[in-house]
Amino acid sequence: MKIECLPLSHDRRIGDGAYPPVAAVVGAGAWGTALAAAFSRGGYLVNLWTRQARVVASIRDRRRNPAYLSDVQLPEGLAATTDLAGALRGAEVVVMAVPSSALRVIARRIGPLLPADVPVLFASKGLEKGSGAFMTEVAEAVFAGRLVGVLTGPGFAAEVTRGEPTVLTLAMAALAGQKTVGRGAREFAETFKTRLARGGISVAITDDVVGAQVGGALKNVIAIACGMAAGRGFGENARAAIITRGFEDMRKLAVALGGRAETLLGSCGAGDVFLTCASTQSRNYRLGVALARGDEPPAGVVEGISTAEAVRMLEQDADIDLRLPPVIRALWAHEISPEQALERLLGVD
């Protein structure tokens, strides 16, 4: 079963005054659904792409995603489809909200279907498994010459879907440019920021894509470690110690790769860490609890494990030693016990 999107054309772009702008969100998981809802409230006509026909039918008939956030009503300005070309038709911005492991494959499908002047933003957090590449590096390899960026920061999907206040970071390397591409990036970023504010999301803008992505990736590793401490019955002191050491890992990696330490003080670093490391809504945190207790891990994609593996390449390339990722790797590989892992995480330097 397939439902077609609203009848769109490539002329429906922002600024022509005839129609609302169109946004395509690729991936109807919890985060993709949440962003689609926020974009709709912000004034976009939203096309949400999913592989699942039942999700399309449920959003059309009941305004709900049965697989994720099934208790939250979705806005009327949000259409769902299994037709990728239809979802992209007429879009002035595309947001990729698929797991990092699937990003390159789906990006390659999108490239031939999208005009060259349409920006693509990546809402996936983590590093590509096997290559250790940031999401923007994958984007630049697939979408050569296109305006790309990352949308990252602290946001539980249910709260974003309901329109509760949220602060995210939009990072685009092109913002640092002084030529036409830089001016175009700044114009896009400011317009995007204005529209999302109407949907309940405040957007901080930066050109530091490295710092923003290091924060978004490593916070998941830190969350696993914090969950382990909680699972063993440790209190807030232990959580604070792990966050402090995790933040030092973030700073060390970001600076070694050319990012700025101060970027990590914003929503894409500190904000994301505080949210993810203190709530059972976080799958990474719940995984840590499960590992410490010897329980079954939570269902769904847990990016922190793949990030801990992928960051090994970056550690080697930058010739730095991080504290948390090697411990999580060793625990996941059953090389050490949860007790030994926590001793390494919390022990004296």
Explain how this protein is built.
The protein is α/β, with parallel strands linked by helices. It has 2 domains: about 20-205, NAD(P)-binding Rossmann-like Domain (Rossmann fold, 3-Layer(aba) Sandwich), CATH 3.40.50.720; about 210-345, N-(1-d-carboxylethyl)-l-norvaline Dehydrogenase, domain 2 (Orthogonal Bundle). Helix content is about 50%, strand content about 10%. It has 14 helices and 8 strands. Helix 4 (about 105-110) runs parallel beside helix 5 (about 135-140), helix 8 (about 210-230) runs parallel beside helix 10 (about 265-275) and helix 8 crosses helix 12 (about 305-320). The termini are far apart.
SSE topology:
Layout lengths: L21 E5 L3 H12 L3 E5 L3 H10 L15 E4 L2 H5 L4 E4 L6 H8 L9 E3 L12 H8 L5 E5 L4 H5 L4 E6 L8 H19 L2 E6 L2 H23 L4 H21 L10 H10 L6 H11 L9 H16 L5 H9 L5 H9 L3
Parallel strand pairs: 1-2, 1-4, 2-3, 4-5, 5-6, 7-8
Antiparallel strand pairs: 6-7
Helix pairs in contact: 4-5, 8-9, 8-10, 8-11, 8-12, 12-13, 13-14
